[in-house]
Write a structure and sequence with these properties.
There is one protein chain. The protein folds into three domains: 103 residues, no CATH class; 142 residues, Jelly Rolls (Sandwich), CATH 2.60.120.1440; 69 residues, Phage tail protein beta-alpha-beta fold (3-Layer(bab) Sandwich), CATH 3.55.50. 27% of the residues lie in helices and 31% in strands. It contains six helices and 20 strands. α1 packs across α4. The longest helix has 27 residues. This is Ferric-dicitrate binding protein FerR, regulates iron transport through sigma-19.
């Protein structure tokens, strides 16, 4: 019996189209099974399993032309049970093949050389880290791709991004690092930042974690960099392609800067608001303004340690009976002040 005949007969049995001898043959197969398909871990094992089973089936076929005897049949030998088991066997074989193929074809990173460049694409469902020749690490998100020269030039480092990625660029003042994404260029010397692309609108967002980043529109070679912004940590810019506009703002979750020399406990006991806000500005690199300067002398007693920036501000405003808003890259606190 060929593999094709085996599969066709099994399907015929499930559909209820077998004659009595064919049904008996299928039912006797289960006496031959001593291993579950789910235990198999490779296509080779699965093929070997089916080959051995078919060999046993061919041997067993010689013995099945016997009169059927009337007797009480155990549950596991009843037709209804065997139909379900046959269906499960087909599903199990199919699922095993799918799982095996998935393991073999789920390529995390694929590379393709083209004209002195190689393109790395993340075809997996998890982010992947790529290390470039200068030590720069790029965390490429799923479906993202990065086009990189086989070797960087002597005066600059250039890469082309499609999708989302986080860059941790190795510092080299002599060779600035350029990331081209859509219609914008991001230029750095050594820093870490995110670049996110919106497929539907083609808008691009850049968020800075450390260092300084220059973001501007692509220009003709030799032209001065225009229509752009300089970003510092905890700041972001969104480029709207249709209107060619850059809109700056703050990241959704600002983090404390790594280069702050004096560690601050953020535990305050009867400390003026102005001093508390100075600590926040230094530690997060964000401008915080008071609409009413009179509340700067109001004192605060609170433990703000190990809390996100916006939680700190919630506590401060709760104590001061005030509120805050994020206006672009500035946080504005509004309130009447202490009594």
């Amino acid at each position: 019996m060929s593999r094709k005949a085996f599969k066709e007969l099994l399907q015929k049995y499930i559909d209820g189209k077998c004659n009595s001898q064919e049904s008996t043959l299928v039912e006797q197969w289960y006496d031959l099974l001593d291993r579950e398909p789910e235990e198999l871990t490779s296509i080779e094992e699965l093929d070997d399993y089916k080959f051995q089973l078919w060999q046993k089936i061919e041997q067993k076929t010689i013995k099945i032309n016997l009169p059927l005897q009337t007797k009480e049949i155990p549950l596991w030998k009843k037709v209804s049970f065997r139909i379900s088991a046959a269906a499960c066997l087909l599903l199990a074989l199919t699922f095993s093949l799918l799982k095996i193929n998935q393991k073999n074809t789920e390529t995390l990173i694929t590379e393709k050389n083209t004209e002195g460049f190689y393109t790395t694409t993340n075809t997996s469902s998890a982010k992947q880290i790529i290390t470039l020749e200068d030590g720069t690490k790029v965390t490429l998100q799923p479906a993202g791709s990065l086009r990189v020269p086989n070797h960087f030039s002597s005066d600059k480092r250039e890469v082309y991004l499609a999708g989302n990625a986080f860059f941790n660029v190795t510092k080299n003042p002599e060779k600035p690092f350029f990331v081209y994404a859509g219609k914008i260029t991001t230029k750095v010397l050594g820093t870490s930042f995110f670049i996110k692309s919106e497929p539907k609108t083609a808008n691009i967002e850049v968020e800075v974690v450390t260092g300084r980043v220059s973001v501007f529109e692509k220009t003709i070679t030799g032209k001065k960099e225009e229509n752009g912004v300089i970003l510092t940590p905890n700041h972001k810019v969104t480029y709207f392609q249709e209107s060619n506009l850059f809109v700056t703002g703050l990241v959704s979750e600002p983090v404390q800067l790594n280069n702050v020399s004096n560690a601050i406990s953020f535990k305050y006991d009867d400390v003026p608001l102005s001093a508390v806000l100075d600590d926040l500005e230094k530690n997060y690199g964000i401008d915080i303004m008071l609409e009413n300067e009179h509340i700067s002398t109001c004192t605060i007693t609170a433990n703000l340690a190990e809390k996100p920036l916006y939680t700190k501000l919630d506590i401060i405003c709760g104590v001061m009976r005030a509120s805050y808003t994020v206006n672009g890259t500035t946080i504005l606190i509004t309130g009447k002040g202490c009594e």
